[in-house]
Write a structure and sequence with these properties.
The protein is of the alpha+beta class. Helices cover about 55% and strands about 10% of the residues. The chain has 2 domains: about 60 residues, no CATH class; about 375 residues, Cytochrome P450 (Cytochrome p450, Orthogonal Bundle). A 4-stranded mixed beta sheet has the order 1-2-6-3. α2 runs antiparallel to α3, α10 packs antiparallel against α11 and α11 runs antiparallel to α16.
Amino acid sequence: MTSGCRAYIDRRTLGHRGGRCSIFFVQRLSSNMSVLDSLDFISAFIAFIVLIFSVKWLMKRRNLPPGPYGWPLFGSIMLMKTGTPTDVFRKLRQKYGDVFSIKLGTLTVVVINGYENLKEAFVKRADDFSDRPETYVIVELSKEKGLMASSGELWKQNRTFVLKALREFGFGKKSLETKIHEEVDVFIKYVMETGGQPFDINRIIHVSVSNVICSIVFGERFDHNDARFVKLVSLLDEAATINKPTGLISCFPALRHLPGDMFKIKRFKKVFSEFLEHFSEQVQMHRDSFHENETRDFIDAFIQEQKSRGRDTQVFTDDNLLITLLHLFAAGTETVATGVRYSVLYLLHNPDIQEKMFTEINTVVGQSRPVTGADRSNMPYSEAMLTEVLRCANIVPLSVQHGAKKDIAYKGFVIPKDAMIIPNLDSVLGDPTVFPEPEKFDPSRFLDAEGAVINDKKMIAFSIGRRVCLGESLAKLELFLFVTSLVQKFDLRLEHSGVLPSLEGRFGLTRSPMPYRFRAVPRS
């Protein structure tokens, strides 16, 4: 029996005929059950399956960028438990170089480090490196649609339309700044009502920032006490928290079939569905009140295109609209809100920097009028401070994952089809050869000898290449207006004197700060 199967294996490579040999192996064992008891059969079968997977696993490592070997079936999943993803990748970079690979379960991950390497891959060779991986969230939940989950021609056409529509409804226009000021006023009023007592800024800043993107997409802002709107923002906060464990599905797809919800997969799917249900209701309301000659917002613009082109196109389908709305809402809320929270955190840790910032605001703007976008060019220290926040906070340190739709030759290696490709932004923002003493919070690194702002091309907090965040300019304007307005009106102080809140982040949809409270004392 054993020699018979061995002869069969010799005639067929394990890498290509493993499935047929498995069947043959079972058939031969079944005909000789009188020799082996059931326990021997199970043990032999399991050993054989492991052997097949081991050989396939070793074959797949040929021509891969270097990296830890890990274990068959499991890869180096336990290595990722030894620290944050950025910490682990920093150590692997030191050992294996700027381009390395790591096996996580069934998934092959290739990590690209260093500014020049990122530029070569995602700028110069964007045709090869701009697609998304086939993960659970992208394929099964997002259906490979929307801004963040689509690839190829669908993504190009969708992005072109979205950018055009967003510009029509505010991007780069004075009217959008007016909407931001409206939310800043509500935000400042809320902070004033705390009366200098400790509070957590998380909920109010998420709601305020979310209203900015809502005014563009839905054509209206929502009252901060609107129950459905508050629930929507809360769902986003929950999704940001539970997103990390759902990433295990990409490594071990079978996990989704386990009973219970140990990895929050079912809960994440339910949250996703609740988002789409809410946006579907918004779309239906727009359809019911739609007028051909009155385009009120992004949804109306989409419906107009849908009516003129029909729904047989890839872009102008109902599914693509709903997923695009979700991506706009999430991206337009989470990054800016997290940026404001980190800004306050770093100002609490650096009261001298807060004082310099206030002095500049008071000199340029004073206390009698609000800060405006036009003031940015006259407030270089505040601009530099916020740029340093984005660098240190490193809100999306691994960008959004890319995927290989085919084998890609790169740097003498082969990135195999279906591999996940990670643009490691942290390898630039936290690199001491690029930004000396990267752990130090120092706004002056973005100022020249005359005190003017340095626009460093290596400041890639919003990613790099074709899939750079299209809302970068809006996010920076919002961050500037919310934070400078806060510092203009309040002295930001610790909840307890001498007790600094943690700068450590938690990984989810973004890298966000741990919950903290502070006091905002009105300036006299």
